Each structure stands twice: as structure tokens, then as C-alpha cells.
């Protein structure tokens, strides 16, 4: 069985939103429903690696659909997903503006449930397969295929050793590694590495993580690992 696609649906009109969400769920989609822009941004922050397509009403409270689209297009995980604008406006200039922001389709309300589903189906069929495997931890996103780390939408430039270190922690977030274990992981065949080498690499990595530096925790008398007070996604 093919895994279900997840749709981010942003719509502030309660009844139409719930009807569309229920219809999509009946047709084997998973729906993340947000009734305002702030909640949508929170869902993007928390569930980015799950979302395959977004349906955005332009006129939603707090953060409008256009700004949500900008956030999606700048996002390291979501940058290439299909976006559909769903709006009561029926003006050519709005449609052009939406497409210039990076939307893939534009549907004027009221629209039939079957029409919206058909547009979603078409865009997902066209979508190229996801080639990257992402791990999210707070505001950090690790691309284990491309070997890149992002803080929100900004790429962090890491050395190969720093990447190897953060990947080790990300893939085993509940484990604390001793310095010797870390040395064996990052040292390879190099015998001229020492315990202090680990401390230096961790220090440099934390500097590059900036505001997210406390994601790596020092466990006194034990070693290093992910901060268990923070939540992975």
C-alpha cells in the first residue's frame, strides 16, 4: 500500500474547511487543518517533513496565505512542494500575484470538493519523488541524503567531521556518547586523535548552530548527546 500524502489545509471558514478536510480524508489523504496563518506557520515548524502539498486560502487571519506561501518556498524541506491558492477573490491580478509567489494552481471559491481533490491529485502525480531524507529537531533540519544541516531556512556550513557528529546525535537522540565512542565514529583510521579533539569539534559545532547551540548537551562524567529537554519531530 502506498503511504498516504499529507495536505496542509489553511482555511478560516469553519464549515467549508471541515467539509474539505473530511472529503480528503475519505479519499486517503492525511489533512493538517489550520484556521489561521499563525497556526499554519506552527504546523510548518513542527510537521514540515510530513507535508506533501499545501492548500492556502489567501484571506486568513494573522498571517495571510501569500506570506505562508513565501515561508514554504524558502523552507529547506518544503521549498518544492505544490501549493494551491484557494480564495473567494476572482481577480486576474490576484491570480498573477499568487503564481509569481510560487503557487502551482489557483482555485476560486466556491469550488466543488471533487474539483479541489482533482487538482491535488494532478499536482501530486507531477511532483518528482522526494530524494532527501529529513530529520527535524526543533528548528534544525538535517538532510541525510544531501549531507546538509539547516537552521529554519538557512543552511549551516559544516565540515565533514561536524556533519558526521551532528548526524550521529540526530539519528540517536536518546543516547549519550562517550568521547571514545565519538572518536571511533569521527576518527576513522586516524589514530592521532584525542579526547580533547571531541571537545573542540563540539565547541565549533555549537558556535555554528548559534541560537540552536543548546540542542547538544554535555552530560557530565558521561559525554555528549542531544538535549532531552527539547523535542524532536
Determine the number of helices (DSSP H or I, runs of at least 4 residues): 8
* First-residue to last-residue Cα separation: 24 Å
Largest sheet: 5 strands, parallel
Task: Give the DSSP E fraction (strand runs of 2 or more residues).
Answer: 15-25%
CATH fold annotation of the largest domain: Rossmann fold
Round the Cα radius of gyration to an integer and report it.
21 Å
H/E order of the elements?
Answer: EHEHEHEHEHEEEEHEHHEE
What is the fourth-level CATH superfamily of the largest domain? Response regulator
Give the strand order of the largest sheet, numbering strands 1, 2, ... along the chain.
Answer: 2-1-3-4-5
Mean of the pLDDT scores?
A: 84
Domain unit count: 2
SS-based structural class?
Answer: alpha/beta
Second CATH tier, the architecture of the largest domain = 3-Layer(aba) Sandwich
Overall 3D geometry?
Answer: elongated
- Under the CATH scheme, which class of the largest domain? Alpha Beta
Percent in helix: 25-40%
Unreliable parts: 189-193
β-strand number: 12
Topology:
Layout: E1 6-10, H1 14-26, E2 30-34, H2 37-47, E3 53-56, H3 65-74, E4 83-87, H4 92-100, E5 105-108, H5 113-126, E6 134-137, E7 140-143, E8 148-151, E9 154-156, H6 160-171, E10 176-177, H7 179-187, H8 195-209, E11 216-219, E12 223-226
Parallel strand pairs: 1-2, 1-3, 3-4, 4-5
Antiparallel strand pairs: 6-7, 7-8, 8-9, 10-12, 11-12
Helix pairs in contact: 2-3, 6-8, 7-8
